[in-house]
Each structure stands twice: as C-alpha cells, then as structure tokens.
C-alpha cells in the first residue's frame, strides 16, 4: 500500500495538467500515465512546429538589426568628421574674433570689473532704497560677461554709466520718499523717510540703518544722544533753508560706533555695588551740604540784621549771645566773659553741624573707589586664569568696574571737598562774628566798670 501511494504521488506530479482525479488502483494509474505521456508528446511536437515556423521571422529581425547597426556606425563616423571640422572652424573663428576685437577685449574686461564693483557699492548705498533693483542688474551683467563670450550691448554699457552718474548725482541731494521701515520692535511699517545723500537716512526723529544685502532699512535699536536726534527733527521739519544735521560721512560706521558707546547709566552699572554705594554717599553728602548752605545763609542774614540793631533778638546766634549781658547786668568782667564764652560754645555746634560728615564723605569716597578698583582687578585676573588672554571681552567687565569706581569716587570726593571748604568758611565767619561781638561786650562792660 505504501508503494502504491508513492507511485501515485510521483505520477500526479509528472502529469498534473492531464490528471483529472486521483487513481483508485494500479490499472487506472497506468492508464493515466499513458495518457499523460501521450499529451505531453503532442504538446512538445506543437511547440517544435511553432519554433520552426518562426525561424524565418527571427532571421529577418536579425538582418534588420545588423543593417540598422551599419547605418548608425556610418552616421557616427560622419558626425565625428563634422565635429572635428566644426572644432577647427570654431578655433579659427575665435582667433579671428580675438584679433578683430583688439583693445575692445580689454574694454569689456574693465567694464565687467566696474559693473561688479559698482553692484557691490550700490548694494550698500542708501540711494538703492529709493531706487531698488540697481545692484541686481549690474550683477547680472557682470556674471553674463564673465560666464560667456557674449559682448555687452550699447544699452548695457550705458546702464553702467547711468548707475554711476545717478549715484554721484544723488549723493548731493536730500530726498524724501515713502518706503517700508522695520521698527526696533520688529514691526514693518510704511512711512516717509528722509535720505541725506549716500550718508544717512532718518524717519520720525530716529536714525535708520541699511539692512545688509537688501534694499530695506530698519531703525537703529540704540539711537545716539539727544543732541544728535534734535538735528534729525530739525531736518525733517525744515524746508529748503539750511539746517544743522549730524552727518556720518562713512555711511553708518561712525554712527554704529557712537551708539555702542555706553550711556551714563550703563557706565554707572559697570561700577556694580561699590559704585552705587559711592553715589549713595555722594547724594547724602549733597543733601547735607544743601541743608547747611540754606541754614548758614539764613543764619548769616539774621546775624547781619542783628548787627544793625541795638536790641538783641532770640532768633539768631548773635542775639542769643547778646542777651547774656542783659541776663547778668551786675556780673563782673571775668564772669561775663565766661558766660559769653559759654553762650558761644552753645551756638558753635548749631553752626558747624554735619560739616564733619561732609568731610568724611570726601575722604571715604576715593577709598571706596580704590576698593572697587581692587575688586575689579581681582575679577580680571580670575578671568585671565580661567580663559587666558585670547578674548579681551572677558576682561572688559573687571577693567570697567576697576576704572568706573575710581572715577565715581573722585567725582564724589572733589565736590564734597569744595562744599566742605565753602561751608566751613561760612561757619567760621559766623563764629568769628560771635567772638568779635562778645569781645566788644566785655570791653564795653570793662569800660563801664572803670
């Protein structure tokens, strides 16, 4: 039974197209095998007949392919001959063109160079904001003349001349027109702007800068000082009459350096904590000096009025000293002298009050400046230790603090010294008047006693 099943499977694999059903016994298996062999033989004979009938057609296709190959080889040979002849003729024509051009070749070379340089200059010119697209035309002309052997036309040569003449003409004009301006906040708005030659451009009282590589302008993020901006307003508000204007002949380089300069507030910030302490002491000293100046002025006026009066008044130091003689009418000369000295000593603290504090500030301020200097140099040396001396910006913070605190200390100390000297002189004059009048009272009492 196993052999029967194996033979059946083999026959089914060999005669799968012709077997309709699985054989039941060996006779049916043999019959099906015979029929399959016969069908396969008939199929092979049909295939062979089909191949023989197509042999003539295959030979015709081969002959056509060979003929086509021969024609293409002949065409290739002819084209190669024409190509070599064209190359020879082209070389001869180029030599003839070079000989006939002569000095024109140098002219077009100079024209190409001038067009390229002019395009670069116009790209960084404020005039291109009013007349956009000039640099692109010249750049295209320079590239066309450099990448091909084509000669420039008369119109193209005139375009280069016109661009140069226009730039020179516009450099001497003040023009007003509308264009898109990028504000410091990033917003783009269309507004009237004033162009001063090829040097500067302003709008709404602010200076503008040219965005590199474009024909657009933007407001400077940081504007120069008010004395420069006031001239901008005068230019925008003025008519044809001459006005004062801060002009940057470099086209923005000096202006860029000017706006980078730190303001007074930024310089004070560089002084850090020590700088603010110095300024705080200076402010306190200034307030004290102002109070002393007003007090001594009023006091001096009252003393002068008291000198012109015989009756002593209680509202001024001299009057209070003069009241001592009325208080002790029968005292002897020595006792009265002591009482007057006592009264003067009571008035001196009121006259010289807080002057010592002003003097202390004038001495301490330079010392605090020195402290800030030392601290700043320590920070500088620490930066050098960590990062080396390759980048000066790393050391700029410490050096700025060192210099700014010294300056702040001197700025506070010098006025405090002058104020102390002035106020001290006034207070000494008042004390001298009190002592002088006290001596006069003692002399008068002594004469009466004699």
UniProtKB/TrEMBL annotation:
<keyword id="KW-1003">Cell membrane</keyword>
<feature type="domain" description="MotA/TolQ/ExbB proton channel">
    <location>
        <begin position="328"/>
        <end position="435"/>
    </location>
</feature>
<dbReference type="InterPro" id="IPR017270">
    <property type="entry name" value="MotA/TolQ/ExbB-rel"/>
</dbReference>
<feature type="transmembrane region" description="Helical">
    <location>
        <begin position="356"/>
        <end position="378"/>
    </location>
</feature>
<feature type="transmembrane region" description="Helical">
    <location>
        <begin position="274"/>
        <end position="299"/>
    </location>
</feature>
<dbReference type="InterPro" id="IPR050790">
    <property type="entry name" value="ExbB/TolQ_transport"/>
</dbReference>
<keyword id="KW-0813">Transport</keyword>
<dbReference type="GO" id="GO:0005886">
    <property type="term" value="C:plasma membrane"/>
</dbReference>
<dbReference type="InterPro" id="IPR002898">
    <property type="entry name" value="MotA_ExbB_proton_chnl"/>
</dbReference>
<keyword id="KW-0732">Signal</keyword>
<feature type="signal peptide">
    <location>
        <begin position="1"/>
        <end position="20"/>
    </location>
</feature>
<dbReference type="Pfam" id="PF01618">
    <property type="entry name" value="MotA_ExbB"/>
</dbReference>
<comment type="similarity">
    <text>Belongs to the exbB/tolQ family.</text>
</comment>
<keyword id="KW-0653">Protein transport</keyword>
<feature type="transmembrane region" description="Helical">
    <location>
        <begin position="398"/>
        <end position="421"/>
    </location>
</feature>
<keyword id="KW-0175">Coiled coil</keyword>
<keyword id="KW-1133">Transmembrane helix</keyword>
<dbReference type="GO" id="GO:0017038">
    <property type="term" value="P:protein import"/>
</dbReference>
<feature type="coiled-coil region">
    <location>
        <begin position="39"/>
        <end position="96"/>
    </location>
</feature>
<keyword id="KW-0812">Transmembrane</keyword>
<protein>
    <submittedName>
        <fullName>Energy transducer TonB</fullName>
    </submittedName>
</protein>
<keyword id="KW-0472">Membrane</keyword>
């Amino acid at each position: 039974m196993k052999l029967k099943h194996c033979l059946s499977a083999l026959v089914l694999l060999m005669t799968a197209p012709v077997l309709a059903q699985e054989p039941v016994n060996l006779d049916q298996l043999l019959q099906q095998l015979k029929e399959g062999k016969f069908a396969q033989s008939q199929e092979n004979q049909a295939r062979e007949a089909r191949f023989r009938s197509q042999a003539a057609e295959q030979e015709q296709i081969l002959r056509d392919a060979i003929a086509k190959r021969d024609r293409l080889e002949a065409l290739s040979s002819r084209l190669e001959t024409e190509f070599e002849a064209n190359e020879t003729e082209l070389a001869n024509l180029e030599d003839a063109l070079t000989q006939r051009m002569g000095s024109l070749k140098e002219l077009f070379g100079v024209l190409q160079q001038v067009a390229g340089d002019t395009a670069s200059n116009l790209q960084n010119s404020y005039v291109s904001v009013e007349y956009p697209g000039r640099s692109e035309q010249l750049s295209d002309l320079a590239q066309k003349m450099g990448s091909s052997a084509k000669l420039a036309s008369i119109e193209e040569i005139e375009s280069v001349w016109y661009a140069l003449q226009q730039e020179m003409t516009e450099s001497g004009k003040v023009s007003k027109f509308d264009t898109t301006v990028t504000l410091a906040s990033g917003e783009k708005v269309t507004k009237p702007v004033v162009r001063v030659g090829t040097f500067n451009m302003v709008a709404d009282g602010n200076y503008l800068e040219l965005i590199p590589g474009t024909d657009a302008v933007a407001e400077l993020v940081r504007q120069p000082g008010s004395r420069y901006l006031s001239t901008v307003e005068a230019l925008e508000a003025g008519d044809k009459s001459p006005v004062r204007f801060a002009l940057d002949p470099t086209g923005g380089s000096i202006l860029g350096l000017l706006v980078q300069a730190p303001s007074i507030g930024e310089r004070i910030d560089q002084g850090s904590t020590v700088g603010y302490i110095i300024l705080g002491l200076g402010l306190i000293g200034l307030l004290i000096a102002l109070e002393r100046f007003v007090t001594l002025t009023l006091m001096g006026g009252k003393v002068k009025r008291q000198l012109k009066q015989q009756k002593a008044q209680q509202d001024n130091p001299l009057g209070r000293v003069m009241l001592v003689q009325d208080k002790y009418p029968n005292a002897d000369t020595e006792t009265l002298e002591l009482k007057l000295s006592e009264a003067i000593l009571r008035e001196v603290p009121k006259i010289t009050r807080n002057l010592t504090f002003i003097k202390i500030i004038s001495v301490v301020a330079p010392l605090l400046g020195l402290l800030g200097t030392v601290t700043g140099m320590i920070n500088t040396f620490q930066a050098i230790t960590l990062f080396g001396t390759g980048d000066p910006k790393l050391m700029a913070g410490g050096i700025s603090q060192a210099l700014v605190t010294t300056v702040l200390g001197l700025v506070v100390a010098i006025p405090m010294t002058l104020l102390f000297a002035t106020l001290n002189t006034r207070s000494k004059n008042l004390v001298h008047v009190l002592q002088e009048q006290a001596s006069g009272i003692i002399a008068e009492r002594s004469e009466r006693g004699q």
